[in-house]
Amino acid sequence: MPPFLGGRSTGNQRIERFWGSLRQTVCEFWRNYFREMRSSGELDQLNPIDIQCIRLCFLSVIKYQLMVFQSTWNVHRIRAQRHCQVSGIPSVLYHQPQVYGYEDRSLPLSCNIGILQEIIDEYSLEYPLYGCENDFLDILEEITGVDKHAFTLPTNVREAHELYVSLKECLNGYRI
Fold it and tell me: Residues 92-108: pLDDT tens digits?
């Protein structure tokens, strides 16, 4: 069997539609937002403090927008098409395929959850708190007097931007 398939790529239409929707709904906004911050001089992408501030201030808002996009995408209806037999709502197709006349093709795990957890512990890196380096969070803890595990994260773009500007003023002159 060859390492690729030749012919028309009708099967890519759905994933291309997904990426197009994601780009239009979430990515374009953030790309333009951060581009504007760079061109106005608010953000220096070569400055580690700026990058850490961006992560702390905006990551929770971006994650929330991605979660909303995911939830919306997973409940949209996929229409039946000539080249593809699958139609329905993605979350229902995944969790209850029998509703649409399909069968659950998932396989049982060949090991128990304990073994999987051991593999995760052995081979995974812990995601940094708020996506930031510990040194940066330690500096913030020192400046604000607030435990780094108790920071209140922004819930919208305006709050994130205000926090970013405030942090940049407080951290002026610090190095990490």
Answer: 888 888 888 888 888 88
The total of other beta-carbon atoms located within 10 Å of residue 59's CB is: 16
Cα 3 from chain centre: 31
Report the C-alpha gap between 67 and 164 in whole angstroms. 22
Average pLDDT, the chain: 88
Q: Where are the alpha helices (DSSP H) in 23-150?
A: 28-39, 48-73, 90-95, 113-123, 134-144
First to last CA, the chain: 52
Confidence of residue 46 (pLDDT cuts 50, 70, 90): very high
The continuous run of DSSP H or E covering 19 comes out as: helix 13-22
Instruction: Report yes or no on 6 lying in a domain.
Output: no
Q: How many domains are there within the chain?
A: 1
In a domain, 96, yes or no: no
Q: Which domain holds residue 147?
A: 12-78+107-170
State the Cα–Cα distance between residues 126 and 68, nearest whole angstrom.
24
Assigned domain for 95 exists: no
**C-alpha to C-alpha distance for 175 and 135, rounded to whole angstroms:** 10
Share of the chain above pLDDT 70, in %: 91
- State the pTM of this model: 0.79
Q: What type of residue is 103?
A: E
Is 97 inside a domain boundary? no
